[in-house]
Design goal:
InterPro entries: DNase_TatD-rel_CS, Metal_Hydrolase, TatD-like, TatD/YcfH-like. Keywords: Hydrolase, Metal-binding. It holds the Pfam family TatD_DNase. One of its GO terms (cellular component) is cytosol. This is TatD family deoxyribonuclease. By secondary structure, the protein is an alpha/beta fold. The protein has a single domain, classed as Metal-dependent hydrolases (TIM Barrel, Alpha-Beta Barrel), CATH 3.20.20. The protein is 36% helix and 14% strand. It is built from 9 helices and 8 strands. The strands form 2 sheets. A 5-stranded parallel beta sheet has the order 4-5-6-7-8. The protein has a 3-stranded parallel beta sheet with strand order 1-2-3, with helices on both faces. Helix 4 links the parallel strand 4 and strand 5. Helix 4 crosses helix 5 and helix 8 crosses helix 9.
Length: 262
């Protein structure tokens, strides 16, 4: 069995309320050895910590998602910051980023919130887990001043073009998070990844979302990470064990403070 790391899963979400413990068991049985949990916003921290603080191999992150940015963002982000500055150990700043797919009302505020959290990542020397949907120009505008810094992280759920990939690869401390989208029939990702070396990839599920083929349309879970790894084995024409080895090494380069945790 190949050992894999899920760098992005939301097993604390309500979609798992009926079988959360079983989902963790299934992930372990599938060879998924570590689960990295990005927070969503001020409303999700306690559920995430309840899960991670009671399971080995579960690593919480703290952040404020762009789609949660609203007219009360300062107060809500303040709550998240209090958690960051508490005694709780976190392994990354995320999930953060830009999302203009659903609504552009708070575009300026999203950019400000992202910039604040980039500064947190640098202050705490933690990786930044970046979500971006229909907003690459705005994302790159925020990140540009930090290009020469020691900022590291993951471009989560990367589904961009070859041009997008080349721009993002200039941020040498970042990996590309690849999930079930790579298995979709109409996905351009397998072609785009021909321009991205395997040493820049990490695996993720984004469960409960984006289930890979043959589970597409169903609830996703960390056990399905194997299907993502199998597809990358085809794309890069290397063994499944090589995919597991390289992507796990890449994950632990990003999450430095998780490397020796057990």
């Amino acid at each position: 069995m190949v050992a894999l790391i899920d760098t992005h899963t939301h097993l604390f979400a309500e979609e798992f309320d009926e079988d959360r413990e079983l989902a963790i068991i299934r992930a372990t049985e599938a060879g998924v050895t570590r689960l990295f949990m990005p927070n969503i916003d001020d409303t999700s921290v306690e559920a995430m910590l309840a899960l991670c603080n009671s399971h080995d191999g579960c690593y919480p992150m703290i952040g404020f998602h762009p789609t949660s940015v609203d007219e009360n963002w300062k107060e809500r982000l303040g709550t998240v910051e209090k958690w960051l500055r508490s005694e709780q150990v976190f392994y990354g700043i995320g999930e953060v980023g830009m999302d203009l797919y659903w609504d552009k009302t708070f575009k300026k505020e999203q950019m400000e919130v992202l910039d604040i959290q980039v500064k947190w990542a640098l202050e705490y020397d933690l990786p930044l887990i970046i979500h971006c949907r229909e907003a690459y120009p705005e994302l790159l505008e925020v990140l540009e001043p930090y290009r020469k810094t020691l900022l590291t992280g993951i471009f989560h759920s990367f589904t961009g073009t070859i041009e997008d990939a080349h721009k993002l690869m200039e941020y040498s401390g970042f990996m590309f998070g690849i999930n079930g989208v790579v298995t979709f029939k109409k996905s351009i990702l397998p072609e785009v990844l021909k321009s991205v070396p395997l040493k820049r990839l990490v695996l993720e599920t984004d469960s409960p979302y984006l289930a890979p083929v043959p589970y597409r349309g169903k609830r996703n879970e960390s056990a399905y990470l194997v299907k993502v790894a199998e597809k990358l084995s085809e794309v890069y024409d290397v063994s499944l064990s090589e995919i597991g080895r390289v992507t796990s090494e890449n994950a632990l380069k990003v999450f430095k403070n998780a490397e020796n945790s057990f």
